[in-house]
Structure formats: C-alpha cells, structure tokens
Amino acid sequence: MTRIPDVGDVVGDFSLPGGLLGETAFVRGQYALGEQRGNPVVLAFYPGDNTPVCTTQLCSYSDGLEALSACGAQVWGISPQGVDSHEDFARARGLRIALLADTDRKVARAFGIAAPVIGLRRAVFVIAPDGTLHWKHVGTLGMRFPSAETIAEQLAGVAAG
Fold this sequence. Notes:
This protein is of the alpha+beta class and 161 residues long. 26% of the residues lie in helices and 27% in strands. A hairpin with a 4-residue loop joins strand 1 (15-21) and strand 2. It starts with 14 loop residues before the first strand and ends in a 5-residue tail after the last helix.
C-alpha cells in the first residue's frame, strides 16, 4: 500500500474526469491538480454517491462552500463512481462542488487511502498553493469527517499564491 502523504510533502499531479453542477447544467470536464497551482485545493475523498454518510459530508461542504472558497480554494469531491453517477448525485442533492471520478482508484492509491470492500477510506487533504500538503484528515472507520468549519480554519492558514 502506498503511504499516506505527510504534511509538507509535494503532492503529485493527477487528472480526473468530473463535473460541476451549474445554474442550468452539469458541466463536465477534466480536473488537473497541477492546473490549480497558485490556489489552495481541498480534496474530499468519499466512498460512494448517495450513501448516508457521504451525502451528509458532501452536502455540508456544498452548504459551507462560501467559507471554503473565501481564500480562493477549489473543493473537489472524489470517489470511485463514474461521472454519470456524480451528475445524478449532484442534481439530487444540489451539490455545488466539483465531483471527480476515480473509477480505477489510481488517485486513491497514490494518496494511500485505497481500501478493500469500500474502495477508499474517507479522507480530506488541503493542498497549499505551492502544491504541498498543508493538512489532512484520514478516517479510520469511515463514519467521521471534518466539518466545513474545520477545513475553512485550515484554509485560513494557507495564503493563495
């Protein structure tokens, strides 16, 4: 198993398909971490669309988006489901964060959070504008996740580049 990156480590670039629910459409595209240099990024890994805990987690981040994006941060939800599933999930819940499809779990493995049965461990990583890991929370059981307020506090410590 790949080790979970430590705070201060440079995070490797990746690109995943995904989409973002806009005013009238779910806009699909490629999301590349390297293209975000100069701004902080929140990576919220979650096991599955439309499951009780994941729905609560992603809705809380969507509801707290203003606080999370106040310092220029992008917020990406990442799970193993495909983009079609993400679109259905975003539309059903009115989610305002980008949802990315890590269908082969390659990115989850790179972050050391791939797990048998559930696909991946629930985890949140805050990437600093210079591409280093600023903060992380990796769940051991999967039922707990950091609040939007906790993540916003961590983002406050990261100045947009």
